[in-house]
Amino acid sequence: MSIQGLFYVIAVILLVLAALPIGTRGVSLALLGAAFALLAYSWDTITA
Fold this sequence. Notes:
mainly alpha, 73% helix, elongated
């Protein structure tokens, strides 16, 4: 599995956890998941 695929997996896990009714203080799991998804999407551009 490539690093890009790993970032997508992390993003999906974080977004699923953000949809659950869990109280997290400080960091938003949805925003963190979106950041990982954006990082995975742009990974080819970043490393080019």
